[in-house]
Amino acid sequence: MAEEEKGYRYSKRPLWQWFVIYLIIGALVYGLIYYFVFAKNSYNNSQPAPNASQAPTTSVPAAKNAIQIVNFSFSPATLTVKVGDTVTWTNQDGIGHSATADDKSFDTGILSQRRSRAVTFGKAGTYTYHCSPHPNMRGTIIVQ
Ligand SMILES: [Cu+2]
């Protein structure tokens, strides 16, 4: 009799209810994944400027003036921009790299894979820079 009751209760829940339950669980899992991806991206964009008090400061990355760090080199190695322009470095390598000014006027800090950092150049001049863990990696920003 007890078994009969159990079986009755189980089958009482209609199929559409199970469907709704799966839908809710699915939406939660999807939302959670989306949240973590979004949180990661916004964290990347909101990282504090390493040298905020100095003349070139970091700000929101711009689409133009993008430098890719690929295979232990800066591409393009030399970039000419206008005063007030923002340059964004993005590391495509699996190993950490930085874009560090030789005169320390800017420093992206170590960027892990697919991380980027933007630097705004407020003063005209020629800025040579290197990667702090790999000083043989070199680049130049010409601000005019
Ligand atoms: Cu490097």
Second-tier CATH architecture of the largest domain? Sandwich
Rounded to the nearest angstrom, the radius of gyration is 25 Å
Cα end-to-end separation: 89 Å
Count of helical segments? 2
Provide a descriptive summary of the structure in words.
- The chain has 144 residues and is an alpha/beta fold.
- About 14% of the residues have low confidence.
- It folds into two domains: 44 residues; 78 residues, Sandwich (Immunoglobulin-like).
- Helix content is 29%, strand content 26%.
- The protein has a four-stranded mixed β-sheet with strand order 2-1-4-6, with no helix packed on it. Strands 3-8-7-5 form a four-stranded mixed β-sheet, with no helix packed on it.
- The protein has two helices and eight strands.
- The termini are far apart.
- The longest helix has 31 residues.
- Strand 1 and strand 2 form a beta hairpin.
- It binds copper (II) ion.
- Copper (II) ion binds next to loops.
- Copper (II) ion (CU) binds next to loops.
